[in-house]
Every structure is written in structure tokens, then in C-alpha cells.
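Protein 1 of 2
SEQ + STRUCT:
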Amino acid sequence: MSGAALGIEIVVVFFLALFLLHRYGDFKKQQRMVLFGTLLAWYLCFLIVFILPLDVSTHKTVIFHVCEHILCSYFQSTQHVCYKPWSYIPDGIMPVFWRVVYWTSQCLTWLLLPFMQSYARSGGFSITGKIKTALIENAIYYGTYLFIFGSLLIYVAVHPQWRLSWYELQTIGITAANTWGLFLLVLLLGYGLVEIPRSYWEASRQGHLLIKTYFKVAKLMTEKADSEENLEDVMEEVRKINESIKYNHPLRKNVDTILRKCPVEYQEKMGRNMDDYEDFDDKHNTYPTERSLSKLHKQVIYAVQRHNRTRVQWQILLEQAFHLEDVAKNETSTSRQFIHSFAPPEPVGWFRRYIYTPTVEWYWECLLKQWFYRILSVVLALFSVAVVWSECTFFSTRPVLSLFAVFIQLAERDYNYLYIEMACFITIFFLCTCVYSTVFRIRVFNYYYLASHHQTDAYSLQFSGMLFCRLTPPLCLNFLGLIHMDSAISHQEKEQTAYTSIMGSMRVLSFIANGFYIYYPMLIVILCIATYFSLGTRCLNLLGFQQFMGDEMTSDLIDEGRELLRRERRKRQRIEDGESRRREWRERYAQRDEIAARNRTSMSEMKETNYGETLNSNTNRQAKYTRGSSQTGRDSIELLQDAETLDFNAKTLTDDPLQSEPGRHAGGRYLSMSSSRSRIFDDV
């Protein structure tokens, strides 16, 4: 089993990163380079988080080697038996693994992802144009790094007493990157430690959650109208350029590229108004340049992406609001069966038919879900308190005040490696949840926004990858400091983990190791207090950014959202009523068509029967009037010799005029073929 845990976690983490990327990104429309860069950044960061507990437990197996040596020397005097844990990783694997993962993530976050971000956001029409735009945008970015690095080298060269080796320069670079990451880490962690337990507590209050949803509906409606107006303005500019640049203009291929990025309905409108027979030289107009077309291309991509995102979010928010209103109505139901206002768009599967029945759904939505969220909120709040306490006291080693360090040391005494791994995993998973969930929640206007259901743009995906790569290494170092596994912070002469050996000794910069890394995390207390009292939300509300502040502060938007939701409900109800009426008419006409088809079948059968009887009667009559060959020949001769005009007023009719006397006049013998007029239609 040596190394099996490492291989399993590598595979599991890959599929976890792939699942999240599929949820937020769009595999069909976005560029492969953007998806690959984001997937690699997320995968490496999640890998560091999941593998670090194995590194800690492997480090603790040094106790196993010491204990094994003692057993070999004093086998007669000891009764303790040491065993190798199933997740033990052989020596030499973890240092190489951490070195590859760490430096790959740092190259991504500081070099490749910024360039790829500018490349994906560029409005160029060719690869060369996009690369040129990306290099120009990142010139200041990379120039700053080169200036700092060059100044550092000059400073070291001027002062020979420093005598910094390559290892020490590498450690200084790692320390600078971790310092920047720790500065942002404390801000995000202070927000997440309070907001995550509070969000679950508010989710248990159905009334409060419904009011907040009304506020979101009104706010999203404003954003949706703004995105539609922005799209109309951009499409108007595209229409003007499409009409001015004709088919034989050199920039026409760029215009066609822009048109392909437009929605289908706008493409059809613009395609109908084109006059391809006109030449661009016939009229002396001012034509746009390639640079202006690139700018317009960028605006089209942004406007279409924003419009699609708001449209999808509007539908999702409406479904959530309708569901919350259904929960409020079903809470007073005496039948204890959950009734939905609208039928689900998808057919009911076996899970909802046999397991998640309406009765089970009622008990979960109206009774159990609230208590589950409350219990979960209390547990998460206790974890948050433990983290805040440990962040303020992790530098104290005698006595040990950090709660997580106490738990690890208790497991170390009993040689319980499984407990060490589980305690480390739960702790670092909670820290990562607080930090990463804040990254997924924050929104910097419309430039950075992670939206689910495949609605995140390329810029936001790569920016999140940059943040993850910069936040994860200092987060892991902070975790190791909480459990007293970082000798640079705990000041204890212990065997270092493979991760801390790659990070280097922070004692090269003593003012950072002994000052910033110890006292700066204490600011998390102030940030938690500010988040608890919603100081940031209140400041944004004062600056004009609408934020949810309760019933009284945002009553106008809540009423507006309620009215918008009522309007959408009536609209959807009319649509469903129309569909039901059309369905009823189809079923009714289907029954009529079935009856008519059955009648037609029976009538055709009756006609076939009558036709058979008619054939039989004609056969019998033909046999009745059959004569000999001589008689038939005589009749034929009479017909040929009869040249007189037919007398239709003849009064004498015989049953068989052909058998009349030879001297009698033959006129009028074709007036009737039967004995009387009343029997003319008997055979019909």
C-alpha cells in the first residue's frame, strides 16, 4: 500500500477540479487554452491542500523509525508494538512532488496566467494581434517584477558582506510571494469564518431567506435591463459598421468575425439589410480602422457574455423564489405532501417517484431542513471560534494554547496516524472552504465574477486561478503554524515536513518570520468583528451600492421584487394554462380523428360488401339476358341498320325490345333498359 493514498488522492482531486470547472466554465464555447490554464491552476492548489495531511502523517512516522530502533535495541524490555501506517509515503517522493507542484503553480500565477488573461480578453482578430495586445498590457506588470529583482541583485552585489547564495535568494523570493498571499489570506479568512456559519443560519429562516430573495430579484432585474440596454447599444454600432463596410472592403473579414459573435436574432436582422452589390469605393465614407474594430470586437464579447449570464441567472433566481414561496405555502398544509406551483420542466425520475416522494419532500423542506442547517451552523461557528483562538495563540509553545496543536500532539502520543490525518484534513479543509468560498462569492463590479451554470467568462476563470495559486502556499504554512509543525514560527528544533523544507527557512528574513507572520494573523479578530456587524455592507450601501440591510432599510426593493415575482408567476401561469388547453384540444381532436378513422374503415368495409353483392346481381341479370349466338348476331345487325332518330316520347315500352316483332318500328327502344321508371336506381 506504499504510495497508494497519494495516487488515489491525485486522481480524486483531478476529477474534483474538473467538476468545478465544468460547473463554472463552458467547455463548448471557451478557448481550450483558457480551460487548460484554469484547470491546471485549480488542480495544483487543491492537490496541495489534500496531500498536505499525508505529508504531516508521513513526517510523524519518524516516530515509527525511532520506535522501531528502540524495539530492536530493547526488545526484551518494551511491550509497545509500532506499525507502519497504510498511507506512509517512502522517503524522497514528497520533496520532489512539492517542488514540482509549487514551482509550477508559481509560474502559472506570476507569468503565464496574466499573459493568458490578457490574451483571452483581447479583441484581436489573429493570434499575432492577440499576443501583441497581451504583451503591451503586461509590459508594466512584468517590468515591475524585473525592476524589483534587478534592484535586489544590485543591492546584494554592492554589499559583499551579505554573501547571499542562490538558495537564500530563492527563499527571499518565496517569502515575498507568501507575504503578499498572507496579506490577502487574512482578509478573506476573516470574512469567511463569520459569513459561512451565518449563511447557514439564515438559510434555516425561511421568511428571512424569502425576503432576501425578493431583494435579489429586484436588484438582478435592474442589472438585466442594464445588460439588455448595453447589448442594444453595441449591436447598433455593429449594424452601422456592417452597413458601411461592404463585401469587397479589406476589413470585411473582421466585420464577419464580429457578426459571428453576435446573437442569432441580430445576425438575421443585419443579414437582411446587407446590399452586397454596392462597392465600398462608390461612396466616400469614413471607414473604421482595424484598432477600432478590435475594440468593438472586445465590447461585443463582453456585452453578449453579460447578457447571457444575467438571463440565465434570472431564470435560476425565479426558480429559487418560486420554490421558497411554495415552501411557505406548504408549511401550513395538513396533508403533509409538498405541492409545487408549477410542474417540473423535466420528467419525474425514479428517485422522486420512489424515494423523494411528496411526503418525504414535505418533511425535509418544511421540518428537517431548518434544524439541519441550524445544527450545521452551530458546528461551523465552533470551528470558527477555534480557528480565531488558534490564530491568536499559535506562537505560544509553552504552554500549548493552539487547539489544533493540542489535538495533533494527543494523537502523536498514541501513534494514531489515522487520527492525525483526519484531524489535519478536517482543519485544512475548513480553512480552505472559508477562503475559497469567499473567492467564489466576491464580485468586483462586472470585471471579476464567478457565476455557475457555465456563465463565467475567461477573464474571471483565470483570475480565480491566479488567486488560488497565490493564496494556497501561505494558507498551508499558516496551517502548519497552527499545529506547530513550522519550526520558523514555533521556534522548536523539530524534523521539518517536506513542504516546509521546500519553502525554505524563514529565518533568512527575521523581521518577517518573527514579526509579520506572527502578529499579522491576529488582525483576523478585527475582521471577524467587522464582518459580524456587516460594516463592509453598510459602507457599500452608503456609497450607493445597493446591499441587503434587512426589512426596514431595503423595503422599497423588497416590495419591487415581490411585485416582479408576482408578475412572473402570472406570466408563467398563463403559459401553462395555454399549454394545457392546447394539450386538451390535441387529445380531443386525437379522439375525434380516431373515431373518424374507425368510421372510414367501417364504411370502406361496407362499400366492399355492397360492391360484391352488386357484382353478383349483375352477373345473375347478365345470365338472364344471355342468348344464342344467332340471336346476338341478329341484334347487332339491327343496331347497325337503325339510322332513324330516337323517339323519346314513345308510349309503348316492352321488357325486351330486341324481341319485338320484325315489322315493328324500332324507334325509342333505348329509352329504358328496365320494365319501369321506378326501378331505374335499384342497382345503385
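Protein 2 of 2
SEQ + STRUCT:
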Amino acid sequence: MFGKYRVERDVLDEQRLEEVTQRKSYTDTHPSLTDRLKDSVRCSVPKLKRCVMSSLPVLYWLPKYSVWDYGMPDLVSGISVGIMHLPQGMTCVMAILISLITCYFHSLWIGTFTVLSIMVGSVTERLAPDAAFIINNGTNITTEVDVTARDLYRVQVAAATTVLGGLIQVVLGMVKFGFVGTYLSEPLVHAYTTAASAHAVVAQLKYVFGVSPTRFNGPLSLVYTLGHVCSLLPQTHLPTLVVSAVSMAFLITAKELNSFLSPKLPVPIPVELITIVSATLISSYAHLNSNYTISVVGEIPSGLSSPRAPDINLFQEVIGDAFALAIVGYAISFSLGKTFALKHGYKVDSNQELVALGLSNTVGGFFQCFSVCPSMSRSLIQESTGGKTQMAGLASAVIVLVTILKLGPLFQELPKAVLASIVLVNLKGMFKQCMDIVKLWRSSKIDLVVWLVTLVSTLLFNLDLGLAGSISFALLTVIFRTQMPSYSVLGNVPGTELYVDIETHSQAREIPGITIFHSSATVYFANADLYLEALKEKSGLDISKMIIYKRRQEAKQRRRERRAARRAKRQAKRELADAPVFSVEEEAGHWRNTWGDPDNASLGWMSEFQDGDTTTLGSSSDDTLSRDLERVSLGSLGKWTWDIHSIILDLSTANFIDTVAIKTMRNIFQDFSEIDVDIYMAGCQASVVEQLERGDFFSESITKQCLFASVHDAVLFCLNHRGATSFTRYETSLVCMKFR
């Protein structure tokens, strides 16, 4: 059922591996800054074509557009969204057209967004308050607000904020700031869009109940607004509430019917378009506005504004707000784009989308347009009505243009409650993302916490501060997981070259004399100390205590040797002092007088030698006892103190290594060498080896022969070098590679 393979090769350390693979030098794989600049400015036809196609996506998708497959759904969807976007569409029609040319998103509708509109409105109110436009009425000595002058200045402030925010987005896109989108994980995006949907719902409640709550800005504005709406519920305008209820009931029923019949229909039923047209006709003939004071869209100005340069003197006053507007707009754009991209299976170029959004805002600002981003509610409506491509946005832009120029009066009687009902019903799908809580609870508690923190922070602190807090918290979870990884000792799977955690795999066998230490994360400054402590714990070797004890024993040994040397020196001096002075003749006479018993002198000399030697043997015996005691003491400090001769550090999970980690690794080599334990590293990626080289890790004592291509290579080397005989009785089949 499963295939088998058998490999016979040399054991490869890093030095041998580089020789076999002919590893390129660092300069070959990393061109200099000058070379990169030359390559970036070098122009070629393929490169120019790729640049143009990436900057203008319309050149890519428009030639492939199929009118037969997508024409009718896009047209119906565009009409529905375009009519629904009245009258706000007048403030962003030019931005819509620019986004069609530069944007990749297939399913998103670019337009005004509630939160962005509130942010722009807060800027205009701060820089153009009513108090700055008070004029005196000369007839009755009263004051009043010059509304015309105030509104004209507020339009200038909004246009300047929009243009500056767009320029910031373009610059950020050109410097590849879109990488920030990689930190928007799927749980974060889902929670963020759910919270944004809640903001949109609260913004529509005043139209549903027909009340006029105070507008709040800043943190907790959602709570304050919702609280004020609830306090105004006794003042609910009943005719408006009836219109909202009937509209929502019709929309929900029609959408369910649409879902049931969708397999049999060539295009979805344009429920929203039918609702808007029907509501407009009923309101017009029943005079809902005049008879029941139901709020309607009202007068729609005709004609387009001529382009006008913004007041650059306002830039310094709105730069902070413009930057926040740029970031929030991008976050909403990328979050929604990622959600729809995952659903429909296309990729998102975050940098290009940032540039496209910036160009839309910059050009739109010259036409006094509000800041725009993908609209959540209208994107959902575009999808639910069958929109497939960007052509649906073009159709809606045409509808807005035609309405502005000719058909404005036809939709003046459209009740705002109907538009609010359409938004609420279409946001239902976003709130289904709350079901992620159950799935995340089962799969990942950390992702669940990220989801909840994102939701709560965005609800309480609005989309700008909520986004910053959510990303910061998500990054903290990444740091926490890399700072507190899991550490394990690996054992061999019998008959294979595989090594797994011995605590979680009962059949994994430890290699006698060898400890294979594994970390689930890369080693860097935040976890380097924890890595060293975990190594001591898993190996059972308390290096610091063992080194201190060994040095004490060595000091004691040196003191004993010095005392023994001094005793020997004193003994030699005494023997020299007691020796008699004699001549040849006297010595000859002495030997003649003692000839009869010559062994006495010899035995006496031997006795003296033996006495001296007895002292030497006694000293040797003391040393042996000291070593035995030392072994007992050291053995009590660690479980495998005398069983381990080699430790292999599995660095296969490391994708980088910083200077702090390099210093820690160097200390590990030095400290363990003092207790005669060899350290080896295995599975280092090429980038990690390059960083070790640049960090001056290698030396005469630590060479590339201490690095091995895999854990198995390191194990075979250790067994051949220091422990093969003790291993053969455990698993002889492990040694299956040729060692050289």
C-alpha cells in the first residue's frame, strides 16, 4: 500500500554538504544595492508590460470579459446598487470610475462608508464650527449662522482631507506598505468586518425608527449612539417603522424565494431593485412624506461639480486625520477584499489595492467627493443581486450619472427607511461570522481570543483605534507563541531515520548517550534564555553547578599536588642532610667491613624506598577516592550526567538567528565542553548558516563539522565517534548509512 525507499550515502556535515552542493557565496545570492537599483530602472518589454498590467488591471480583465456570461447579472446588479446609492453616490461617482480602472477586486463596490463619513464630518465640524460663521442681524440685533459660507468651507475641508488621505495611500502603496495586510489574519478580518457591520446597523437605526439621535464621535461613540437611540424609542415615528417592517419582511421573503429558485433561474431576481422602484412609486402616489411625514431622499441636485484644486493650506491642519482616514480605509478595503477573495477564489494584491484606493480618493477629492472605500452593505447587495465583475460597478456609476443629470426628480420620494431596510437585511450574512466562535473554541483558543478582542475593541473604540489595538494584540500573540514554544527530546522511530517526541510517541526510542533537543520555534533574543534553561531541564544537566563543582575539585586537586610536591621536596632535603660525607677509600673499607652481610644495606635501602613509595601509593589512593566522591556528587546533579556524551540541537524550525541567539549557542558549546559533552547542530537552513557566518560563530573550536544536514547524520556521527558499541544492542538497523 505504501512505497518504500532505501538510501545509502555519506554522513554529511555542513562543510561536506557545501562541497557536494557547490553552495554559492553570499554576494552571489544577495546582489548589492547598486545592482538592485540598476535592475529596477532597467527597462525591458516584458517588464514594462507586467508593470502596466499590474498598475491598470482593467487591461487584464476587460479583454477577457464575457458579455454572454456576465453581462445581464452585472447590469441588474449595477442598477440595483446605483439606485440604492442615491443620493450619496453623487459624492463619489468619479472615485467609482477610477476604481474600475485600477482595482483588482471583483466583488467590491467602492463608495461612501459610514465610519469614514463620520470621520470626515468630525474634521469639518472641528475646523468649521458654527461659531466661526456667526453673523449679526441688523434689524433685530440677533445672531445667526451663515449656513452658505459654512457649508462651502466644510466642502473645502472635506475635499482637502480626502485628497491628502488619497495621496498618503498612494505613497504607502508605492513603498509596499501593503505588507501590513499580512498581519490581518482570517479571525481578525472576520471579527473586524462583523464589528464594522454593527457600526453600519447602528447608523441605520435612526432611519428605521424615524428618530434623530445626537451624533457622537470618538471612543464609545457606538455605545453612546445606541443608548441615545434606545432612549428615543418612545418617540418612534410609527409610519416610518411600518414602512421599515414591511420592507424588511418583503426583502427577507423574496431573498429566501430567490435562494430556493436560484438553480432554475438564469439570473437572480433583482429583489432590491424591485423594492426600490415599488417603494418610490407607492411613496410618490400616496404622498407619504406630506401625509405621514415619512423621511424621503429629497431633492437630488443635478449636474456634476467642476474639478477644483484643494486648498493646500489646509493640509497641515488635517494631516493627522487624513492619515487615520487612509489607514482605516485601507483596512476596510483589505478586510472586505480578503473575505470576498477567499469566498470566490481570487488573489488580492494589497499594494495595488492601496494605490487604487488612493487614486480614487485623490481624483475624487478634486471633484469635491467624500473619502471612499469598499462599501460593505452595497458590496453584499451587489453580490446577492448577481454581480460578477467590476462591470457591475460601471453600471451603477452610469446609473448615478444619469440620475444626477436627468433622473434625479424620479427618486426624490424614495423613503430612507426602505434604503435602511435593504442595508440591514443584506448585513445578515456578515453577522453569521459570529459562528466562528464555536469553531475557534474547538480548534484554537488563541485565535478565539484574537477574534473576541478585535470585535470588542472595534465596537468600543471605532474602526481606527480598534484596528490598531487588534493588530497590536495579534502581534503580541505571535510574540508570546514564539517566546514560549514547546521543547522536547526526540527519539528514533525504529528502523527509520525519523525522530519524534518521546513524550508523545510511545514507540520512539532514546539513543543511548545522545540527547536530541528540539524547539518548536526559532531561537532569538526573546526566548534565548528560555531555550538554555529548557536544554538544561530536558538533558538533566545543571551546567552551572557542575562547572562550579568541577572547578572546585580541580582546585582541590592542584592544592593536593602542591602539598605532595612540597612534602617530597622536604623529604629530599632531609635525606641529603643526613647523608655522610665519604671518600673512595673510606667507602671501600666500609664495604669490606660489611661484606659478610651485604643484604642489610640493600634491604635497608629497599625499605627506605618502600617507605617512600608507600606514601606515594597512599596519595594515589586518596586521589582515587576523591574521583569516586566526585562521580557520586556530579551524578546527583543530573539524571544522565555520566550517560550523555553528545547533545544534538535540532534547529530545523529556525528561519533566522540573531546575535543574542548566536551568543547563546556559543556559550552552550563552551559550557558543555567543560564537562566533556559534545554539542552538535542539525537541520540548519542555508539562511541560518549565513547568519552564523556573519555573526562570527565559527572558530577553531566550533567548526562547520559541528553542523549536520539532518538529525540522523548527527546521530550516526556521534555513534561512530563516541558511542556506537553501546547502541548496537538497542537498534542495529539505525546505522544504515555509510560513514566516511
